[in-house]
Amino acid sequence: MNGPRLIRFAELPAGLAALTATARGMEEGRFSRASAEAFGELARATRLAGHIREVRNCISISPDVPSGPDDADCRFVAGYLFGHDLRTGQGAGERPAVAMHGSLAWWPLASGRYAVFGHQGPHDTLAQAWREVFDTALPAMGLQARAAPLDLMVDDRRDTPAQALRTEIWVPV
After folding, report:
1. 60-67 CB contacts, 8 Å cutoff, 24+ apart
2. Predicted local confidence at residue 162, as pLDDT
3. Domain ranges across the chain
4. Predicted local distance difference test score (pLDDT) of residue 173
5. Could you give the angle at the alpha carbon of 57 between the alpha carbons of 55 and 63, nearest 5°?
6. Above 70 in pLDDT, residue 111?
7. What integer pLDDT is reported at residue 2 of this predicted model?
8. 33 pLDDT exceeds 80?
């Protein structure tokens, strides 16, 4: 695993929203179960609606500050972006027709400037990477987060070894 490093600043246009599913529960400092539950619900609904091939980005959002490593109420939000590619900044956001049920919702993303940090390693090491970004990198740069950050999954964990997984941590600043 490599520690997070600033790779660029990016601008998110106004009006972007991700189709999301939410699950709760952090166990031993990880969202493994909640992640599987939320992404499972999201993938099933998107496949059923016939829009899975239109997904441009796979993201996750952790809008809550955990009260500890076993915070049963801490939310994990899994999301898909349609039409706009975060990595290239190309395309307009889209909201394809998907039957909204369960925890599905359209989650508006904060527009404006983001500090984008690169991380390589298993997804269960992201909590430590976030701590490094918030405790060390942002203060050293004189920056402060203004909304919930998000993780952009660059690689698909189904066909990439865990140690090689690349994730971008997007922090609105």
Report:
1. 60/31, 60/35, 60/150, 60/151, 60/153, 61/18, 61/20, 61/107, 61/148, 61/149, 61/150, 61/151, 62/31, 62/130, 62/148, 62/149, 62/151, 63/148, 66/26, 66/29
2. 87
3. 1-13+113-149+157-173, 17-108
4. 96
5. 120
6. yes
7. 57
8. yes
